[in-house]
Amino acid sequence: MLDGKIAIRSLLPDELAGELRAMGEPAYRAQQVFSWLSRGVGGFGEMTNLPRQLREKLAERYYLAAPVVLRKQVSRRDGTIKYLWELADGNAVETVVMRYHHGNTVCISTQVGCRQGCAFCASTIGGLVRQLEPYEMLEEVMFSQLDSGLRISNIVLMGIGEPLDNFDNVMKFLKLVNCPRGMDIGMRHISLSTCGLTERFDKLGELNLQLTLSVSLHAPDDETRSQIMPANRGRGVEQLMDACERYYAATGRRISFEYAMIDGVNDSDGQARLLAAHAKRVAAHVNLIPLNHVEESRFEPTPPERLQRFKGLLERAGVNVTVRRSLGGDIDASCGQLRKKAAAGRA
Ligand code: SAH
After folding, report:
1. Mean pLDDT across the stretch 288-314?
2. Which of 48, 118, 161, 229 could be disulfide-bonded to 110 (CB atoms 3.0-4.6 Å)?
3. For position 336, what pLDDT does the model report?
4. Of ligand 1's atoms, which has the minimum distance to the CA of residue 161?
């Protein structure tokens, strides 16, 4: 896809330094190159303080291009922006920029498609096509900032894909976006969301990154959870809570539970009580999300009165709970509405 070239924006500063050293270049060159890359150049020709010969040599070995915006939509309601990016191989993924009082947040995709099969989510329709590379995730952040002109201060890995199913690439992306001489976005400003691939929790906990782990729980009992989230089958809620407990002990970071409210499926009083017990066990914060509309799904959102009742039950049990404000609903940019596209579907 990249003609056998290495994507240069996937390289960390010390890796870049090693490559340039091997090419016989002085140490300061790596810093110059990294600084151009971080500024979002679309080709080596733009690196005007490098000798022409070096620019040509780099272009022979490394892949560098600015991603193409296939479509950009801006919400009339709240200014949320949704981008559809064309990737080098003709696939396309979506990224969303949201404006909050505490700063601008970008929601990025981590895979082309998804294999987790959650019954209420549009991102999984059509399955997984491939993993996103570190540079592709970095460019979602970098070029959303450049194009929108909005300084991005927070990142949520809540777009298309399951981040823990693309573990190594996601970890490399986090290092890249965290680079002080790069985008310099602190781990405390990053949230990673997972449907609960518990076998990766300990590995993540050992890294002790200070990011926020969000667990898409959506049901507190195995019967309901396995029905709407295939990832629960063969793992189970008990195993998930154990993994959360170990993660919290290892990192000291409170976990967030995401809970999309689905009419008649996961919104009973009994489920509220069970959810409260789980949340208290791991000191989790619960984020209730009114279910967003997905064309292909048969589920309906919980009515507002029932949602309030459910929230009240959690509060009375001493759980820290908020209801997520839905942004970008008029451009299908809300949770669970992002989907992979083929560049052939160009508007
Ligand atoms: N695969 C990861 C990252 C996706 S994050 C995960 O499962 O966490 C997207 C969040 O939106 C998840 O919590 C997901 O469960 C939720 N979601 C999916 N479809 C939704 C819908 N129709 N309405 C509300 N939230 C939804």
Report:
1. 96
2. 161
3. 87
4. 1
Per-residue buried b or exposed e for 225-254, using 16+ beta carbons within 10 Å of the residue's own CB: bbebbbbbeebebebbbebbeebbeebebe
CATH class in words for 6-63:
mainly alpha
Containing 292, the helix (H) or strand (E) segment is none
Where do we find the tokens 């926020």? 212
Atom of ligand 1 nearest to the CA of 162: 1
The pLDDT of residue 128: 97
Q: For residue 325, what pLDDT is reported?
A: 85
Question: With contact defined as beta carbons under 8 Å apart, do 40 and 142 qualify?
Answer: yes
pLDDT the model gives residue 1: 67
Compute the distance between CA of residue 281 and CA of residue 277 in angstroms, rounded to an integer: 6
What is the pLDDT, as a whole number, of residue 346?
A: 44
Residue 347, pLDDT score: 39
Helices (H), the chain: 13-22, 27-38, 52-61, 134-148, 167-178, 201-207, 222-228, 237-251, 269-281, 304-316
The domain spans of the chain are 6-63, 68-346
Q: Helix %, strand %, coil % for the chain, to 5?
A: 40, 20, 35
Assess whether pLDDT exceeds 90 at residue 129.
Answer: yes
Give yes or no for residue 94 CB within 6 A of ligand 1.
Answer: no
CATH class entry, domain 68-346:
alpha beta
